[in-house]
Amino acid sequence: MTDVHGVVPPIVTPFDEAGEIDADALREEIRYHLDSGVNGVSVAGSTGEGNALSVDEHELVYGVAVDEVDGSVPVVAGVIATSAREAAAKAERARDVGADAVMATPPHYERPTDDGLVDYFAAVGDAGGLPILIYDVIEKVDVTADLAARIADEVPELYGIKQSGGDMHGLAHMLNTVGDELTVLTALDDLLFPSYVLGAEGTIGGVTSVYPRVSVDLWEAVRNGEIDRARAIHEATLPLARAAVWDRDGNYPGGVKAAIELLGRNPGHPRNPIVDSSGADRERIADAVAAMRDRGVYENPANG
């Protein structure tokens, strides 16, 4: 199976002013992440506005990522769907263009039974034949540790789970329950440092799409036992993680794209109904970027 671990940023999907995908800007952003030393890239997840992409647009974004990565790191294809049929169609496109794994949410409109969720992920596995990461982010459809263990028993393609529920207790329980058989990744964006110490095998967290170089530094510091250094990075990035991702009430990933732009890159625009961050919201993100720099942590040492 594909080895998905470490820092695997969920890349933003840049849109132009007309709301169309800017493939050139997407390629540039992927290259930036590769140059930052990431362990993989993920596209068409929540940060990549996969919920707003058609199936054909998923194939386009998947294909751009596979082409740019060119086998250097795994490509994880996001699958956000409301039905097994839709999820299967996206998984097939991911397979066809050469993605290495899929990251699939549970369906997010109606709440299925546990039996229904097992059948859902089995359909994704049957259609794509790729390793599956469950993206546990849908608030009303919680994939508990016990359910994850059951899906692992019944769906051979299941590879791991991305814990995004905002609950360190839930992450600890997931690691203790299925950590020996599944790869458990964290997306507790403002708590990546303690997540790694606890045993998470990496992250596909939104903040890593903002500052991938710093995110790799944090991951490597923990892996090398440099806890004081890791804590310093955590403290420096905490205001930005909160301003761009964790404290936001809607309009995601508008704040992520604002943070990326403030750091000197081109994330494009969000797609309607998400809007560009402005006013007090953008000022709060700018202040958080400045706070990170004031603590001596720079995403791009050449310009901060």
From TrEMBL:
<protein>
    <submittedName>
        <fullName>Dihydrodipicolinate synthase family protein</fullName>
    </submittedName>
</protein>
<feature type="binding site">
    <location>
        <position position="47"/>
    </location>
    <ligand>
        <name>pyruvate</name>
    </ligand>
</feature>
<dbReference type="GO" id="GO:0008840">
    <property type="term" value="F:4-hydroxy-tetrahydrodipicolinate synthase activity"/>
</dbReference>
<dbReference type="Pfam" id="PF00701">
    <property type="entry name" value="DHDPS"/>
</dbReference>
<dbReference type="InterPro" id="IPR002220">
    <property type="entry name" value="DapA-like"/>
</dbReference>
<feature type="active site" description="Schiff-base intermediate with substrate">
    <location>
        <position position="162"/>
    </location>
</feature>
<feature type="active site" description="Proton donor/acceptor">
    <location>
        <position position="135"/>
    </location>
</feature>
<keyword id="KW-0456">Lyase</keyword>
<dbReference type="GO" id="GO:0008675">
    <property type="term" value="F:2-dehydro-3-deoxy-phosphogluconate aldolase activity"/>
</dbReference>
<feature type="binding site">
    <location>
        <position position="204"/>
    </location>
    <ligand>
        <name>pyruvate</name>
    </ligand>
</feature>
<dbReference type="InterPro" id="IPR013785">
    <property type="entry name" value="Aldolase_TIM"/>
</dbReference>
